[in-house]
Amino acid sequence: MKRYLLVNLLLTLILTACAAEARPTEQGPLHDSYPNDSYPNGDSPSSDTPANWIPAHASAISALSATLNLPPEQITLISTEAVEWRDGCLGIQKMGVMCTQAIVPGYKIILEANSKQYEFHTNKDGSQVIQVESAAVTGSVEEMMIKQLAFNLELKESDISVVGISEVEFADACLGVAMQNVMCAQVVTPGKIVVLEVDGVQYEYHISYDGARVQPATLALIWTREGGIAGFCDSLTVFLSGEVYGNQCRPQPNGTAGTFANLLSATERRQFDAWINKFGQVNLDASNPEGVADRMVLELVLYGNGAGKPNKAEETAMFTWAQDLYQKLYS
């Protein structure tokens, strides 16, 4: 199950932030590229050659080739549809998986190998490819949250308890959790609030009613960087439960997600835990003075559980930690 969570969390990135509930706009087949609704077919015998493939085709075929351990020439391209996916998971949402929320133009591609068909979802340039799998996730939403928290923070599942479950109607599609540079559709969204506890520390999750979208809700750190000569427009949101969400709003919102388990070393985890336990809410501002040309705005907020205040060296270390985490998220 840990392998399942790791694979799906890496596919995401998100955090289940906020999204409009509109379904993907499945446009018709690509008539400007293909002469028929089904591609390839007998009316276009040469259209299945690699010379006519778009990058997404090559990416999907390469992915299936690796999965089945087959040479690409034994895989047939059956059909292609242009789609506007509603999230960064390319329309493939699973229980416990976080998806960044943005409209992603791409394709639904059907391939055939060994007399069996396979469906792939891609973005427009083929740099992101996800296979549609029929395997379903079993178990309750609460069980999935326990497994996810255990994976994120490298805990034993037996040490995690459920201390609260309540059914709610969230006021927006963000499941009631606002994040930097993330737009929330103002749509009432039925769901649940699940509160987990480990050694007296509580972790809150907001979950859509069907369990397909999960949003961590216990904030731990927010880091933002804007302006400067390079024109930065970056943000990082870290949740106490181990989820990390990054956003680059230039030239357009570009969210991605990860977890402590995938991004932080043991030393970096211990340092973060020490700050959370030692300090209370800390608001730091390392921005250039007002009026400076190409002014850089650099801010950090830590939501700790303690009561202390950091010294200058600790403040600098926090900024360095957050910036390094952001770079890892996008590397």
Give a description of the structure.
The chain is 22% helix and 33% strand. The radius of gyration is 22 Å and the shape is globular. It has 331 residues and is an alpha+beta fold. It folds into three domains: 23-131, no CATH class; 141-216, no CATH class; 219-329, no CATH class. The protein has a six-stranded antiparallel beta sheet with strand order 13-12-11-10-15-14.
Described by its quaternary structure, the protein is single chain
Helix proportion: 10-25%
From the spread of the alpha carbons, the general shape counts as globular
- Major beta sheet, strand line-up: 13-12-11-10-15-14
Major pleated sheet: 6 strands, antiparallel
User: Whole-Å distance between the termini?
Assistant: 26 Å
| Global structural class | alpha+beta
Rg, nearest Å: 22 Å
Number of strands: 15
* N to C succession of SSEs: HEHEEEEHEEEEEEEEHHEEH
What is the average per-residue confidence, as pLDDT, rounded to a whole number?
Answer: 80
Low-pLDDT residue spans: 1-47
* Count of runs of 4 or more consecutive helical residues: 6
Strand content: 25-35%
Instruction: Tell me the domain tally.
Output: 3
Q: How is this structure best summarized?
A:
With 331 residues, the chain is an alpha+beta fold. It has six helices and 15 strands. The strands form three sheets. A six-stranded antiparallel beta sheet has the order 13-12-11-10-15-14. A five-stranded antiparallel beta sheet has the order 1-2-3-4-5, covered by helices on one side. A four-stranded antiparallel beta sheet has the order 6-7-8-9, covered by helices on one side.
